[in-house]
Amino acid sequence: MVTILSMVGVLVLLALVAGYEQHRRRPLLEATIPPGTSRAARRRIIRAERVEARRERIVYEAMHPYRRTGW
Length: 71
Prior knowledge:
Helix content: over 70%
Largest sheet: none
Number of helices: 2
Order of helices and strands: HH
């Protein structure tokens, strides 16, 4: 019983940490954008960062195909 509760607690903690990281990531990116940047330029920078992250994820998945095999 204690083991099961410990495992559930760890899973809940991991979910909370993942949610916090997602919440923290975008403001950190926006904080690196220089003040006085126009709204359109800010959107372009954020979109470019998303494209780069997507490209990195695709390259990683292509280099590590075993991660998606279900093992």
